[in-house]
Structures are given as structure tokens and as C-alpha cells.
Write a structure and sequence with these properties.
Layout lengths: L21 E11 L5 E10 L1 H11 L9 H15 L6 E5 L2 E2 L9 E5 L2 E8 L10 E6 L6 E4 L6 E4 L6 E5 L3 H7 L6 H5 L13 E5 L5
Parallel strand pairs: 1-8, 1-9
Antiparallel strand pairs: 1-2, 2-6, 3-4, 3-7, 5-6, 7-11, 10-11
Length: about 210
């Protein structure tokens, strides 16, 4: 859905862009069951002032310079619909293979200190045991939105099993480019929005349970 003035919400009909236009500070909680399986991912994203102001202007239907409950419900619904085809900008891999996640039931939107904040939870589509190496992260494949964990403490694990280690990995762009030269074709550089390679540069939480048991 487009905002007034032609600005696009996150993704959708976004023109090719090689740099982000929206910025968000993310936090992520990975909830693990007592049996050592991933139960849920809990996301919180806080958006930059400029984008948040755009949201306020677009959805403040009664023009009181606030977003009431009904207006925030509308914001959450629009974001939920907009991000569906992009997997809600989250990724999970186990032993290097993509893990399917269920769509969140809803996205909760809040407006705090002049910033839009959204919260949502998703779960693995199939049981996901912490075995070997499992990675979790967020990224926008269109390059339009820069979502990152500003601090390592913004990524937490609840009930990390014994024998597992966690680390926040921030890939070096030059190293990522060098290691994936064959994947980075001319098409990628001409139109990065049509590729999934931006995942290579995304900060991720790595849980290593190779020593477990």
C-alpha cells in the first residue's frame, strides 16, 4: 500500500533501489522449549522518525496528530498484508537450509516517542530442534528497508539448552562479496530487489548445538 506523496510502505510496488530509505532498530527473542525445540520468534521493530511521521500523516484520519487504537489496528493490518510475500523480513536456516515459518496471527502497532513500533510473533511451520547450527535474522530482500540489531543484547534466547552456544554474527561486506562472487551476477547489481542475496549481509543470531548431548 502506498502512502500519500507516493512513498511506499516497506515493499510491494517499490522501484529498484540500491540503498535503504527506511530504517528500523530490531530486537529478537528466540523462545526455546524445555525439550530444546524452537517455539517462537518474537520481533520488535522501532522505525526512524521520518518514516514514523509519514505513517502518522497517512493514518491519522481524525487529524489529531495521534494514532488511536483503531488507527493503529489499521496500521498493523496494512503492514501484515504488505510483508506477507516477503516472509515478514525474517529468515531462519538450519544447517544452511531455509526453514519455513508460519505467518504471524497479527502485527501489533504502537506509536511511542514519535516512533512507530511494531511487534509480532511467528513459529516454525514444522518442529525445529536445536541440532547443529541454526541461524535467525531479519532483512529486506528489496533493499528498501534497513532493519538491524543495533546491539548484540537486542538478540536473546530464552531457555538456551546446555551444550549450545549463541553468537551474534555481523558479516563483513567485503568478505561476503568475495565468498559469493559466483552468486553475485550482473543482474544482482543492476537490480538487487530481484534477488535474495542481501541475506548474505544481514546480521544474524547463530545457535550452535553441535556439542549438545
Amino acid at each position: 500500500m502506498a502512502f500519500a506523496g507516493g512513498a511506499a510502505m516497506f515493499a510491494g510496488a517499490v522501484p529498484a533501489a540500491s540503498h535503504p530509505h527506511i530504517f528500523a532498530e530490531a530486537s529478537l527473542e528466540v523462545v526455546v522449549t524445555a525439550e530444546g525445540a524452537v517455539d517462537a520468534l518474537r520481533h520488535v521493530w522501532r522505525f526512524d522518525d521520518l518514516f514514523s511521521s509519514t505513517v502518522l500523516l497517512e493514518f491519522d484520519k481524525n487529524a489529531d496528530l495521534e494514532l488511536d487504537h483503531a488507527e493503529l489496528e489499521t496500521v498493523g493490518g496494512v503492514i501484515h498484508e504488505s510483508l506477507a510475500e516477503f516472509g515478514y523480513f525474517q529468515f531462519v536456516t538450519a544447517q544452511g537450509k531455509d526453514v519455513s515459518m508460519t505467518a504471524p496471527d497479527k502485527i501489533v502497532a504502537m506509536y511511542q516517542d514519535s516512533q512507530l513500533v511494531i511487534l509480532f510473533e511467528s513459529k516454525p511451520a514444522e518442529p525445529l530442534e536445536l541440532d547443529g547450527t541454526v541461524d535467525f535474522g531479519v532483512y529486506d530482500p528489496t533493499f528498501y528497508t534497513a532493519i538491524d540489531f543495533y546491539n548484540d543484547d537486542s538478540v536473546t534466547v530464552t531457555n538456551l539448552p546446555d551444550g549450545c552456544n549463541r553468537a551474534v554474527v555481523r558479516p563483513d561486506p567485503d568478505e561476503a562479496l568475495a565468498m559469493n562472487q559466483q552468486s553475485l551476477t550482473d543482474d544482482f547489481f543492476n537490480d538487487p530487489t530481484g534477488n535474495d542475496v542481501s541475506k548474505l549481509f544481514a546480521t544474524r543470531l547463530e545457535i550452535d548445538c553441535t556439542a549438545r548431548g
